[in-house]
């Protein structure tokens, strides 16, 4: 498989503040790489560097074998980028805007009409192609942003939070589109929700405080993830120190006096022990709900592993 | 090259999507039409007297020169308002990343934006020139003088636009860009005023003054010094703009 993106030791400082530090990774064809991290983790900064909008303080990026700094034009030819705010000229119609994008990306004149129609079809914009962008909803604007990024059929597609502001139906359509595109492109997308990564990505990279703390394929990640959590309600206030002492319990978060959230190791599931303890101590168990795995769980796992 | 044209065409068309370009053309044309008609009227009044004097002022001196001088002053006020949004607004609306991530060089972007806006101003100059040309239907015109005035205004407009474009690459808010452009242009325009005081004449100030060079060309004395001044002026601000935009991704 051809290596589409090769990023080596990227760092970026804003003044003294370090946004990302020593980030290295590669992207191969057919891979959908999810960039996962909380707000301010450095996702957007990384995306901006990869798209040539921001110069790294140190490190280098190669796209399709071309250095993004020295051979910018060649490298950018195989790049489609959707920033966190879609770059739309609001006083143009959808069709005019996409035509302009096609021209900017050097699509030959004869092929422009076809490229615009294909992009509109893929992103479901056919019936609004004559409308002004400023009059369209946020969801449609986001889709135009995606159409703009794929119009020239680039090898690498970089999508910064592509499903923000879309309704559930649209999110599903966009995910289908990403899956479809992933057959013959390499895609990087950033997001802060784990479910999105699990739905469309083949690989995941977690970035935290500017550093990559994990790069795994989704399959490996699911195996590796060793944290679950349960929500427990009791009628009387439980003694947290007793519960924390139980084997397998990682941490306890008191949501209110009578409601707690317990994180635990999946391999050493303490749920039955917790129930026994609560009942034998007479705190009267009211409710016990297993929580879906969330990013928090991954972070707990990872930070615990690092400690 | 084709990228420059693509960006220039888009810029030119976009200007006409908002009422701005139409308003500018309308206002410019109305004010100058008023001035033009006043000058023609003045000429009509003076003509009997002038006809008796040998080598007196002609139609071109009384109508054309004031018309183009006033056009220069009004463009000094208007150009900053047109140039302010060129790069600045793209940055504010985050559309600049569309250009920065496309396989387009910084030179293409700057030249494209520049030519796009220059297109509108050339159109304005062309419309102004239609007024003196209409005089041809009723009499003869000093063609040399008309061409000199036209050249002067064209050079002036290219210089104004380049200044405005540079300020637009610098500023983070369009109003700041407009104010900055207006400040620079007005200062360079009035720099020559101190030359009126004989003892305090400064050759440097005289050379730097836009007005001095503009008037030299207007008078029909087309010397390479004046033309070079405008070309250098324009080129400097273009190079500065390209440099500034090329460093855009280093900033923040």
Write the layout of secondary structure elements.
The complex is a heterodimer of chains A (307) and B (252).
Chain A (H helix, E strand, L loop, with lengths): L2 E12 L2 E12 L3 E5 L6 H8 L7 E6 L2 E2 L4 H6 L1 E4 L11 H11 L4 H14 L15 H13 L5 E5 L7 H14 L4 E6 L2 H7 L2 E6 L2 E7 H7 L2 E8 L5 H5 L4 E8 L2 E7 L5 H10 L4 E7 L3 H12 L1
Parallel strand pairs in A: 3-8, 3-9, 6-7, 7-8
Antiparallel strand pairs in A: 1-2, 1-4, 4-5, 9-10, 11-13, 11-14, 12-13
Helix pairs in contact in A: 3-4
Chain B lengths: L1 H14 L3 H34 L6 H25 L4 H5 L3 H5 L5 H29 L8 H28 L3 H17 L12 H6 L1 H9 L5 H23 L6
Shape call of chain A: elongated
Q: Which oligomeric form is depicted?
A: heterodimer
The poorly predicted ranges of chain A are none
Structural domains of chain A: how many: 3
Measure the end-to-end span of chain B. 30 Å
What structural class do you assign from the helix and strand content of chain A?
alpha/beta
Largest protein interface, residues of each chain:
A-B, 29 and 23 residues
Annotated CATH homologous superfamily of the largest domain in chain A: P-loop containing nucleotide triphosphate hydrolases
- What is the string of SSEs of chain A from the N terminus onward? EEEHEEHEHHHEHEHEEHEHEEHEH
Q: How many domain modules of chain B? A: 1
- Major sheet characteristics of chain A: 6 strands, mixed
Task: Note down, in words, how this protein is organized.
- The complex is a heterodimer of chains A (307) and B (252).
- With 307 residues, chain A is an alpha/beta fold.
- Chain A has helices at 43-50, 72-77, 94-104, 109-122, 138-150, 168-181, 194-200, 218-224, 240-244, 271-280, 295-306; strands at residues 3-14, 17-28, 32-36, 58-63, 66-67, 79-82, 156-160, 186-191, 203-208, 211-217, 227-234, 249-256, 259-265, 285-291.
- A 6-stranded mixed β-sheet of chain A has the order 6-7-8-3-9-10, with helices on both faces.
- In chain A, a hairpin with a 2-residue loop joins strand 1 (3-14) and strand 2.
- In chain A, helix 3 packs across helix 4.
- Helices cover 77% and strands 0% of the residues of chain B.
- Chain B is globular.
- Chain B has one domain.
- The interface between A and B is medium-sized, with 29 and 23 residues.
């Amino acid at each position: 498989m051809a290596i589409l993106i090769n990023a080596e030791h990227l760092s970026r400082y804003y003044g003294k503040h370090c946004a990302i530090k020593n980030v290295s990774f590669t992207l191969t064809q057919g891979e959908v790489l999810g960039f996962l991290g909380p707000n301010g983790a450095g996702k957007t900064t990384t995306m901006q560097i990869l798209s040539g909008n921001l110069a790294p303080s140190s490190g280098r990026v190669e796209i399709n074998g071309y250095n993004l700094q020295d051979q910018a034009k060649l490298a950018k030819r195989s790049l489609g980028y959707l920033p966190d705010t879609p770059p739309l000229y609001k006083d143009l119609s959808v069709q005019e805007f996409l035509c302009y994008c096609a021209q900017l990306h050097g699509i030959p004149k004869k092929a422009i009409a076809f490229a615009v129609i294909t992009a509109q079809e893929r992103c479901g914009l056919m019936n609004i192609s004559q409308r002004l962008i400023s009059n369209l909803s946020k969801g449609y604007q986001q889709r135009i942003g995606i159409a703009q990024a794929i119009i020239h059929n680039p090898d690498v597609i970089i999508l910064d939070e592509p499903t923000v502001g879309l309704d559930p139906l649209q999110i599903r359509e966009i995910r289908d589109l990403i899956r479809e595109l992933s057959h013959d492109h390499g895609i990087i997308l950033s997001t802060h929700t784990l479910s999105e990564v699990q739905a469309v990505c083949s690989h995941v990279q977690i970035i935290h405080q500017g550093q990559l703390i994990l790069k795994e394929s989704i399959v490996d990640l699911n195996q590796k993830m060793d944290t679950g959590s349960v929500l427990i309600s009791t009628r009387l206030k439980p003694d947290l120190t007793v519960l924390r002492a139980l084997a397998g319990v990682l941490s306890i978060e008191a949501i209110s006096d009578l409601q707690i959230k317990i994180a635990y190791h999946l391999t050493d599931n303490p749920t039955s022990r917790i129930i026994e303890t609560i009942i034998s101590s007479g705190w009267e168990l009211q409710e016990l709900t297993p929580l879906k795995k969330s990013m928090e769980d991954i972070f707990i796992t990872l930070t615990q592993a690092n400690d | 090259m084709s990228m420059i044209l693509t960006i220039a065409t888009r810029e030119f068309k976009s200007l006409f999507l908002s009422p701005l370009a139409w308003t500018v053309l309308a206002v410019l044309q109305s004010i100058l039409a008023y001035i033009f008609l006043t000058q023609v009227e003045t000429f009509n009044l003076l003509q009997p007297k002038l006809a008796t004097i040998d080598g007196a002022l002609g139609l071109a001196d009384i109508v054309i020169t004031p018309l183009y001088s006033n056009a220069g002053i009004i463009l000094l006020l208007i150009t900053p308002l047109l140039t302010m949004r060129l790069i600045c607004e793209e940055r504010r609306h985050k559309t600049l990343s569309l250009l920065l991530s496309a396989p387009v060089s910084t030179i293409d972007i700057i030249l494209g934006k520049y030519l796009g806006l220059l297109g509108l101003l050339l159109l304005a100059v062309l419309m102004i020139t239609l007024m003196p040309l209409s005089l041809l239907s009723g009499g003869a015109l000093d063609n040399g003088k008309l061409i000199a005035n036209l050249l002067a205004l064209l050079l002036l407009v290219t210089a104004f636009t380049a200044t405005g474009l540079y300020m637009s690459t610098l500023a983070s808010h369009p109003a700041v860009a407009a104010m900055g452009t207006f400040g620079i242009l007005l200062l360079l325009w009035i720099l020559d005023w101190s030359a009126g005081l004989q003892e305090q004449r400064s050759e440097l100030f005289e050379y730097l003054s836009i007005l001095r060079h503009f008037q030299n060309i207007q008078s029909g004395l087309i010397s390479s010094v004046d033309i070079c001044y405008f070309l250098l002026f324009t080129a400097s601000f273009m190079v500065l703009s390209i440099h500034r935009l090329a460093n855009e991704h280093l900033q923040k």
